[in-house]
UniProtKB/TrEMBL annotation:
This is Small ribosomal subunit protein uS5. It comes from Pirellulimonas nuda. The N-terminal domain interacts with the head of the 30S subunit; the C-terminal domain interacts with the body and contacts protein S4. The interaction surface between S4 and S5 is involved in control of translational fidelity. Part of the 30S ribosomal subunit. Contacts proteins S4 and S8. GO terms for cellular component: cytoplasm; small ribosomal subunit.
Length: 165
């Protein structure tokens, strides 16, 4: 079901529904439909999480996915200007994502799934490229894996024993 993302503010966390899939099973009386929802939540200040929920109707599946996303929050180091500290690659299954920091005013250059994760994390300027699978579920997972592997500039300076400009 390709359509506009639904965004809701829940307390301090912003929620966006990335994808809703409809599945049907053929039974004796006809078809039985079920729904699966992929939801990304974030506080726009460096915390982001994702969830996947399945139910017989859309609202319960979105609620299940939102609850799972709240439990899977990870922290993302952000630079001044709303970008990431360095280039990073993320991979999950057949999906691969490259995230490149961008200068002020660039915006979020990304597809639907990667954009939802970046916006929920509070990243305002970034360039992205995805390779392999275009399925939103592995793309979201690959993006989160990439964001988890980011290290702030201060940590890199400490580990190397130098100061970076």
């Amino acid at each position: 079901m390709a359509g506009p993302r639904h965004e809701k503010q829940q307390g301090e966390l912003a929620e966006s529904v990335v994808k809703i899939k409809r599945c049907s099973a053929v039974v004796k009386g006809g078809r039985r439909f079920s729904f699966a929802a992929l939801v990304v939540v974030g506080d726009n200040k460096g915390k982001v999480g994702w969830g996947y929920g399945k139910a017989n109707e859309v609202p319960p599946s979105v609620e299940k996915a939102r609850k799972e996303a709240m439990r899977s929050l990870v922290s993302v180091p952000l630079e001044a200007g709303g970008t990431i500290p360095h280039v990073v690659k993320g991979r999950y299954g057949a999906a691969q994502v490259i995230l490149v920091p961008a200068s002020e005013g660039t915006g979020v250059i990304a597809g639907m799934a990667v954009r939802a994760v970046c916006e929920a994390a509070g990243i305002h300027n970034i360039l992205t490229k995805s390779f392999g699978s275009s399925n939103p579920v592995p793309l979201v997972k690959a993006t989160i894996e990439a964001l988890k592997s980011l290290r702030p500039k201060s940590e890199i300076e400490r580990l190397r024993g130098v100061t970076l400009s």
